[in-house]
Amino acid sequence: MSIWRRIAIFLSIMGPGIITANIDNDASGITTYSVAGARFEYALLWTLIPTTVALIVIQEMVARMAAVTGKGLSDLIRENYGVRSTFYMMTVLFIANFGTTVADFAGWAASMEILGFSKYFMVPLGALFIWFLVVKGSYRFVERILLIACLLYFGYVFSGFMAKPQWSRVVYSTFVPQIQWNAEFIMLSIAIIGTTITPWMQFYLQSSIAEKGITKEEYKASRLDVFIGCSITDIVSFFIIVTCATTLFPLGMRINEASEAALALKPLAGNYAFLIFAVCLANASLLGAIIVPLATSYYICEALGWERGVNKTFRDAPQFMWIYTFMIVIAVIVILIPDAPLVFLMVLSSVLNGMLLPFVLIYALSLVNNKKIMGEYVNPKFYNVISWGTIGAITALAVFFVITILIPLGA
Amino acid sequence: MPFFGELFVSDLLKKPVLDPKGEELGKVRDIVMIKGEPFPKVSALIIEKKKKLFNLPWNDLNIFNKRIISAQIYSDVLRHYDYSETDLLIVRDIFDKQIVDANGAKVVRVNDVKLEGFDSAAILVAVDVGMRGIMRRLGVERGGEDMMRLFKKHLPYNLISWNYIQPLEPKLTKISLTVPRQMVSELHPADLAEIISQVSHKEGASFFKGLDVETAAEALSELQPDVQAAIITGMDTDSAADIIEEMPPDEAADVLSDLPVDKAKEILEHIEKDEAEDIQELLSHEEDTAGGLMTNQFIAYRPEILVKDAIEKFRRDAEEVEAVYYLYVTDTDEKIMGVISLRDLLLAPLDVRLSDIMKTKLKIVSPETDEIEVAEIVSKYNLVAIPVVDSEGYMLGIVTIDDIVDRILPPLAKRKRRKV
């Protein structure tokens, strides 16, 4: 096979992995990285490497399941573990994802406000745009738009270079782990993993690969897609941390929001850095606001067995379209109501996500090892050691994360 | 082992199975089905005790209902069971599977499976695909129903009859319907009737409210009399009257005749006067006679009418009338003179009178004629309908062949009595 042919095949397969991994850096992800950089400078950079490895290990298994079975993750969970576990999982995920959707719209609203637009105008407008995109668009079209939007993330890479960090210290912190024994440091490092590996993305990735109709034979290209996606997402995270660490940390600025980071950058790094941060936040938020409700509609419809897919119409897949519409509309309303309990919703959402993650991963791992489902594509032995290790570590951190949120550590 | 009634598989799972002394043999884990006509039937229960699986054949069961399951045998004769790919198991192979329609569209998942007694077997009659099935699996069906009642809504039964499901193969990953999805909601009234006869009366009534009047009327006439009566009684008079009015008078009369007299009167008062009179007239005959079977909607014209005018008139009148294969010729007193088949009418020259082409050697029955005798005459002379004429020659109505077939060979929904 010529190299061009291989590239052509890859280009036709790529999409789901890159999109899923990138959208991982949604509003709450960007916030976490910005806060991490501003608070602890480069000290947390090393956590990105194990996070990337864990992300790749997990996403690869999920992608493999999609290519081999042609089914979504909740399809498989429902068929193999019955109504009860599926139902409770879906209910919790729905609430958690609703919180995430609200967080993404909040990020969109905040970025629009700092760019000088009224959120009362821009939030409904953004919602309308993403609603039209999915309801009226085809899968190919939606995927193209999302891929283009993913390119915008490279803005963070530019801003990282513009900040002129001390590269020697950056490289050192990236490869030499360091731990500071204080509550905030530990919480933030867990939060980085928690915001990078989420339950919904496993469902979304598997569904979108299945909907794209990727087969076992094309799986190799799909694996590359996942690999590239996971790498890009953490490169982007890396530069967000670097930017905030270089500009905000020396001044001892404490920030709590991604939009605050953008504002703080304005006097320090100039208008361009501000614009990049604001526009990228807007872009990431909007992307998240498309994908999270979409992922939710996917897995609910899969679990209950209804027709679904971006390619379908309201007539063909009414439940799918209505769940998507419903989530967006309610999220917009919540954002626009003054004094809505946004913080509570987002904390609730991350607690629920943290609690669910171990279950989702354990289900995924036991499904991928089921010979009846996967045939010869089950995990090789050594791979199982890695994946169980990863999942064990993530589970421990997730439990810890939930505990620290529920019982704040001296903070 | 005789089994009466109907039950959902999820109600059985994890239920203890007792031996004749009341000791527990194990808990129900799964149910093995084998091919049967017309539906698959239960061949054994798979029970679990102390992490071991046993096979309990259907014939060794003594009592089988959702409260008690007991066997005639003791634990020492139970045989071990190992999962086999060739067995068809309800929980393993049918539960939670995707149902796709004939066009490959995903319709819904199997939430539960319904069994029903038939002869001495338990047969798989339908799969539950609704919220009710999910709630039952979660053990909150009752709670869900109570909650819906708060909103004055009824939790619907969404069952798909096994008729529409393609034969299952081992190791299946999805279950296919034989019909496109749209058709599940646009089932033929006779099929709807079959489904309705499988749910309880109260639910049947609420099911009916969801149908348009025309479909409801057709479906109602396909049901067995006691179900019809129960459903109509469960509805408010206005909507009942709407449905009755839509039915052909003979079938309306059949339904009303099974109702309590007061209710029937009440409904008749809500029906348009002409229609009500027709029905009342039919109600005066014994059910199993020609009078009870007949309908008083038929087409009758005067003998002096020209064929071309008759065809013109016929085009207008036939819309309202159920049986149009014969055109009857009556005189001014409505006494019958002759009959013309639709075929003869259409083949006749346009400018002759009906009296020129009508057949005067009529086969007729009196209103008191027994239904079997009517059937014999219709069969002997290969008729599609036969006029019912009183002793003075007045034409009262006609008995059509479909009514006779229904009497001799009742459809499944009418024949099968609900066993609870």
Architecture overview:
The complex is a heterodimer of chains A (411) and B (420). Chain A is mainly α. Chain A has a domain at 3-97 and 137-259 and 340-406. Chain A contains 17 helices and no strands. Chain A has helices at 3-13, 16-23, 27-40, 48-69, 73-114, 119-136, 139-151, 154-162, 167-175, 183-196, 199-212, 219-247, 258-304, 318-336, 342-368, 371-374, 381-406. In chain A, helix 4 (48-69) runs parallel beside helix 11 and helix 11 packs across helix 13 (258-304). The radius of gyration of chain A is 20 Å and the shape is globular. The N and C termini of chain A lie far apart (59 Å). The model of chain A has no long low-confidence stretch (mean pLDDT 83). In chain B, the strands form 5 sheets. In chain B, strands 2, 3, 4, 5, 6, 7, 8 and 9 form an 8-stranded mixed beta sheet that branches. A 4-stranded antiparallel beta sheet of chain B has the order 1-12-13-14. In chain B, strands 11-10-15 form a 3-stranded mixed beta sheet, with no helix packed on it. Chain B is of the alpha+beta class. Helices cover 36% and strands 23% of the residues of chain B. Chain B has helices at 9-12, 90-94, 131-138, 141-150, 181-185, 189-196, 201-209, 213-221, 225-233, 237-246, 249-257, 261-269, 273-283, 290-293, 307-317, 342-347, 354-357, 371-380, 401-408, 412-415, and strands spanning 6-8, 16-18, 24-34, 41-49, 52-57, 61-64, 69-71, 79-80, 88-89, 98-100, 106-109, 112-118, 121-128, 159-161, 174-176, 300-301, 326-330, 336-341, 385-389, 395-400. The longest helix of chain B has 11 residues, at 273-283. Chain B is elongated. Chain B is built from 20 helices and 20 strands. Chain A binds chain B through residues 75, 78-79, 82-84, 87, 303-308, 316, and chain B through 95-99, 105-109, 111, 129, 134, 137-138, 173.
